[in-house]
Each structure stands twice: as C-alpha cells, then as structure tokens.
Amino acid sequence: MERLTDVTIEGISYHAKGNDSLLLSPMGCRAWLAETSGIFDLCHQRRIWALAAALKYDQRVESVILGVTNVLVVLREIPLNETDILEWLKQLWNASQATPIAGKEIIIPVTYGGEMATDLEDVCRHTGLSDREVVRRHYQGRYTVCAVGSAPGFGYLHGLDPALATPRKTVPSLNMLKGTVTIGGPQTGVSVLTGPNGWNAIGYADVEFFDPYRVPPALMVPGDTLRFVPEKIEL
C-alpha cells in the first residue's frame, strides 16, 4: 500500500506517493517550481512533460516553463488559497503518466579533438578511457532534448553514456567558443554562446542553434532526438 506524506506549507511543500514525489517551491506570490525528486531519467522527464501539458491550457495559468525534471508554473493571479493550488498541482502530478513527445531527429556534425577539445585529456583521466573510446562512446549515443534554456537555444540532453560522466571544472573556461561540444556531469551539450563555461570541451560543431529570424528560432525543442556524427577526428 502506498503511503502519502503530509502536506506542509513552510517555504517548500512536499507530497510523496511511494518513492516518486513532487517538490513544490514557491517562487514569489503566484509561481511555483514543481520538481520530481526522482533521478534525471526519461521516465521522470516524460511525467514532467505530461504535467506541463495538463497545465498549459488551464485558464488559471499564465505560463509554463519546462526545465530538467521540473516545471515552473506561473499563475495569472495571486491565489486566495495557497493550499488549494498545491492540492491541485499534486493531483495533476499523481494523474500524470510518462508520455513521450514525438520530436524530430537532429544530426550534429562534430570535429572531435583538435584545438577546441581543451578538456578531452581531463575527461580521459577521470573516466579511465582512451581519447578514441571517449569519442566513440559520445557519438554512438542517442540523445533526447529534455528542455531548452539557460541560453537561447541551449538544449539539455539525456542519453550520455554513464561511463563518460565527468564533473564540471572547478575553474571555468572564461572564453569557451560558441559551438564547443562539452560534457558536464551526466550530461553533454553544445555551447550556444561564447563566454564562461564550466563544462569539459571535447570537440566543436559549426551549427547555429538559435536564429531570431528562423521559425522557430531554436533548432531544438523538448522531445527532439539528437545524434552527434563525427565529421573529423583529430587525436
């Protein structure tokens, strides 16, 4: 029998159903961050997608902003009864099923190694893999776009081989180039802006991930799948 925890409204509200729980954190007077306590996997992300879809067309909701295993819910008005809102969100979560999104496939040509791969040696050192094995495992992955944000067009990807997981750098690169292919913890990505970056550079992709004159402007949307294809390998 599943045991439900009590609800508290003290900055953070928590409701659990078995081991699969939803954490609700107030963000100002009319917004809540709803995040699953589960690990970063597609099952939890797909439940978040389902929750966001259920919220999107509700007249009480002004906007829904997807994140990695979380969603920000912004209401149109300050609620008179916060408890009712929390109960409503929890009921939607309990009714949500892990639902895939049928997105498009995106192919990203990559130059692995070379002068852009400034952290490939560190990734090899941490993982115990050779540079060729790091590259092989990276491009053989099939990645799902979970959310887009933090910078225009940047996609948070699920699907990195766990053997390649490498902690972010303690001292970020101050001027990592736009298009740099990186690994940060259990995720991989491509920088969409030139600037400070704490992820580990292993290659380069000459792809425009955001174009304000394109429809839609972002190359990726949640539910898309992405493949990295080696255009050149310089090891």
Return the CATH topology of the largest domain: Cyclophilin
Instruction: Give the uncertain stretches in residue-range form.
Output: 1-19
Helix content, binned percent: 10-25%
CATH superfamily grouping of the largest domain: Cyclophilin-like
Based on helices, strands and strand pairing, what is the structural class? alpha+beta
Mean pLDDT: 90
What spatial order of strands do you see in the largest sheet?
Answer: 8-7-14-6-13-10-11
For the report, how would you describe the main beta sheet? 7 strands, mixed
Count of discrete alpha- or pi-helical segments spanning 4 or more residues: 4
How many domains make up the coordinates? 2
Protein described:
By secondary structure, the protein is an alpha+beta fold. It has helices spanning 42-56, 82-95, 120-127, 131-139; strands at 13-17, 20-26, 31-36, 61-66, 70-75, 105-113, 143-148, 155-158, 173-176, 180-184, 187-190, 195-197, 200-204, 225-234. The protein folds into 2 domains: 13-95, Gyrase A, domain 2; 105-234, Cyclophilin, CATH 2.40.100.10. The protein contains 4 helices and 14 strands. The strands form 3 sheets. It has a 7-stranded mixed beta sheet, with helices on both faces. The model is unreliable at 1-19 (pLDDT under 50).
